[in-house]
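request received
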Amino acid sequence: MKKIAPAILLLAAAAVGWAALLPLPSDSREALYVIPKGTWSRRMAGENLDILPQELRLVLGVRDILVLRNDDEVPQVFGPVLVMPGQSFTMPFRQASTYQFACSLHVSGQLSVVVRPAPAAGWERLRFRLAGMGSRMAWL
Amino acid sequence: MVLLGVLCIALPAAAVLRGGTFDPPRDAPDFVLRGSNGAALRMSDHRGKVVALGFGYTSCPDVCPTTLADLAKARRKLGAPADFQVIYVTVDPERDHAAVLRKYLGAFDASFLGATGNEDELAAVRKAYGITTSRVASALTYYVHHSSYVYLVDRDGKLRVMMPFGTSADDMAHDVKMLLAR
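response:
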């Protein structure tokens, strides 16, 4: 037992070190948002739809490409641009900042895209990974 | 194997547009307005060129001067190519007559073209491009809040890129150069 405990501690420390230092995976950096088919018809029928969050959160190097796809049958001012039916708009972000865009999908007419820097190696990255086990939104 | 290694080092990674892109690209909506040069300005007359299309006004205190300065810088970086045209459509026809636009834009780059028209004509163009505006009154004057991005239209008249406010002149030049090369 005396020999096992230090080994377990060593393994745990190695795992924490690995999680804190290993680069974050960036196989898919796209954050996809879709206007479903029938959205316009449902709105015309008086339904109050919440398609897009008021604030979109992205992280550089991890999830920093905003993709807006219009599957509806009419053009939509979706986020910053007019997106035609069947069309998608892809916006890569390269600077951490808060971007304000006009957006007809919101009552306020505004949409914020908050882009945060990539979590630095160490405690920040460890927190990011731990948050990923539950909800990464906690870190964001 | 050595040759393959040399090729891998020599070949640059596939260039990717740095602005926002549309898939599939659609035709840039056509319009006819009054140009700041006194002639009719028809968007489709610029086929064969890469066009940077922006919306703003000459009394804009911050966004427009910054954007236009960056566009001018990007154009200079590219060697002022004749087949790259900047077109700036006013959102304030009340103050931005053709002569006012000409003088204002000329301060940034003599090749820049302004476009104006009556409120209905301009509203139709704004709608076609998804540009929003709102007039805000102050004690002495008024401002026009407006979408602050610039579109790039390729030689075939397709809407290809959207550059949000804050895009650097380097990134603008990069994307214009890519579209000019196609």
